[in-house]
From TrEMBL, chain A:
PANTHER family: TETRATRICOPEPTIDE REPEAT PROTEIN 8. Coiled coil: none annotated. Keywords: TPR repeat. This is Uncharacterized protein. One of its GO terms (cellular component) is non-motile cilium. It holds the Pfam family TPR_16. GO terms for biological process: non-motile cilium assembly. Residues 73-124 are annotated as: Disordered. Residues 110-123 have a biased composition (Low complexity). InterPro entries: BBS8, TPR-like_helical_dom_sf, TPR_rpt. Residues 78-103 have a biased composition (Polar residues).
From TrEMBL, chain B:
Residues 5-90 form the Bardet-Biedl syndrome 1 N-terminal domain. This is Bardet-Biedl syndrome 1 N-terminal domain-containing protein. InterPro entries: BBS1, BBS1_N, GAE_BBS1. GO terms for molecular function: patched binding; smoothened binding. Residues 296-398 form the Bardet-Biedl syndrome 1 protein GAE domain. GO terms for cellular component: axoneme; BBSome; microtubule organizing center. GO terms for biological process: non-motile cilium assembly; protein localization to cilium.
Amino acid sequence: MDQFVLAMSKFKRQKYDDCIEICTELLKKNEYDQATWLLKCRALTMKNYIDDLEIDEEGVADILMDDNAMATAPRPGTSFSRPTSSANGGISQNVRPMSNSGRPISGYMRPGSSRMGAGSSRGQLTTAMKANRPGTNRAVTSGGRMLRIGTASMANSGGQFIQADKINARNTAKKKYMAKAVVDYLIYVEGNFRRALDVASEATVLSKYEDWWWKERIGKCYLKLGMIKEAERQLQSSIKTQDMIVTHLELAKVSMRRDQALKTIEVYQSGLEAHPFEVHLYTGISRTYEFINDPTNSNKLCKVVLNFDNTNVEAIATLASYHFYTNQPEIALRFYRRLIQCGVNNSELWNNVGLCCFYASQYDIALPCFERALSLADDTNIADIWYNIGHVAIGIGDLGLAYQAYKIAVSSNPQHAESFNNLGVLELRKGNLEQAKANFQSSSTLAEFFEPCYNSALLLWKRGDFQESYKMIQKSLELFPDHIDSKELKKNLTQHFAAF
Amino acid sequence: MDRAGKPLFQSNYLTCMKTMNKNKEDVKSVSHLIVCNENRELIIMEQSGIKIKKSIKLPSVGVFIETYGLYDIDGKIFIACRDGKIYVVKNGLLSNQVYDIESKPVGMVYIDKSIVVASMNNVVSSYYGKGKKNYSIYMPCTITNIEKMIMKRTKSVNAALVALSNGEIRMFNNKFLITTIKTDDVIMGMRFGVFGREEGSLVINFKHGGLSVKMLQRQANLSVSNHKPGPSIKQDIPLKIKLFVELTQRERDHSVDMHRLFQKDLCKLRLKTAQSYISLLNEGHAPMSYAQGSKLRLNATTEGIGPIFKIKLELQNLSKKSMVGTRVMLSYATDIYKVISKGFHKPMTLLPQINYNQEILVENIDENGAADLIRVFIYNHESSMPLITANLNMPLSEVDLE
């Protein structure tokens, strides 16, 4: 069989590594074989391709040096970075755990879901410098997945395929189809948006501004480089040339970058006018509603999405977690079962199924689910599973089991703040006040949520240390202003202080 | 000096006043002026307004007066006094009926044959004519004013308006809250009545000097809705759905099996947890100390991008006694790392509750900048097992370009 045809068939079957090998062989024999070169380029791109239409990660550098003016006092319910002030009342913090950026933990793990809240510990330089990512201490300066994998995987692709610095933008642009492949390579494999932009700009001029693809790619590059206005212009012009769904999604990313939630929804809706019933656009709107802490609208749209696409994992997961946190574990269980039917088989899902079964009183199924979750787990999430087992143990009343489970969670992941908090409460029950205090302290320094602050405030108050207690209760109220118990405690403390 | 020789004269300050019609209900008919003064007297003036008709001694200084009826025909005067009691004067004589509000009065109105008093403990209470308490309503913050809302011509309304210090005005009909008007400033005074042609208008005076006039709509519904007082927002209790019922049916049907399975799984889980826990203790991975009796907290972090890293240790002694002779020790692969700082091997004394910070500089001498695990042990002479261990996953290091 002709090697080239073999390579193409491997490409079509997504066996990219084999395809690349064959192409490299062919190129050794004939360096000027354009077809093979193109195929290799495409294979490398597809290997590293990530569907970045729906994610928008920003590294620390992007946020630190962001000059785009954003509303300093956004109205409630319109900003991504202040999700606790919602117009349509999300679920209270009492019931639903919040992530580090102050947004309730969603049902679907999205990489780097948009901007971090101002003043959250995620955005600070010190947290960025801490060794959060395994393997490197360096702060993530460019968005997560779009990293320049540079140093580590150089060896894999047999040296740099394209010498990015030596590309002559003009000449490359002239070779029409090659240009497209090169630009994609530069974006997805190298992450070198500058060069990609150069080539793309030349190419769009050559195509007399009639090719929507070039404008869309330029818009994407501008967005990654942080030039939002230009990105918007290019994308809108691309839509005018040819209305494609991809471009609408990119345009929505632009509004998201600007922290304009309602504008994002408008963009999606204008996309829907051109492309009715398009699942991606609906999921986009649903996601935006979730980000601004408006679960009712988000759920309505999830249901619409499921009408068109029964297996949309994101929609099912979001609905399931919403129902779980609003005291309807049976419905959540139904949704998670659907996910199992769809073939999702990871430890998080089994963990969720286990929890739902437990809270829906189907005890016989609950524990085996956890076992399965444990067996599928890896180092990143095993702490969470042990933490949940601890919760189940508390529900049963077996505090010894709970204590052990939390200890295991804490040792698997020393940054797991929730386990520290629960350990503190258990130690308190045992009577080890000092341990409890230390636990609450570690918990409150590790992550920003109100429970450990409130707990340590209560403990300090009981021991008579009113000053420290007051400091902690202030912190707790900062994080969760509507917490009734915190407010009560603060009232008691102020009365004490007033009596002096 | 020009007072000498004249009898001693005490000037009396007036606290409040009200009018009471003599013998006709008409607005324009003859009425008496009733005043209270600081000398604990209730003074009823003649209709001319010059001479004092009657002076009644009260047990305390009156601050609010409300009248009911006609003076000549069994009219009643209610006086709210500084001692927290409301006295009734009937037919010119102080009657035995006394209402005791548990706190000091802030305002008083007479509506619908009952006295409604706002007091300093944020309570609006209502008393019957006979002396019994009708109801109390608790307010979330201090009450600034209370005013009666009586309309006869266009509608028949008998309500009380209570102004709170957070800017709200609540309208009560008996004990039911009809509506709340929100304003953005503290209300100092308000008056309800006829303003021009409009029968139902409310003039409000604000603390920062503003004046607001509100008019009642003709179609305003001031009737009391029939639902019982309590949280009136629809409760978000999820309905008993079919799914839930099915699941409970399942539980009922297979209860014995479910229980058996559950207990078996629970034992298995306990075993598994205990096994993992013990293995952790033995390998010393845990970040909390387990050596008998000692309580120590260690927080270890790495900083730096290499080739030189800084390991920051934060030690805290959680027990009540100080620990003597504690040492820090590092365990690492010698072909990858080299410890630069000297002197951290010295034994430390850890006083209770104080945070001790230690910094150790480590250099990565591997040519590719490989990453490895560094273990930090804290131990003392008591046992060969470390008091506490910390495992640090060191990051990839930048390579020294020289």
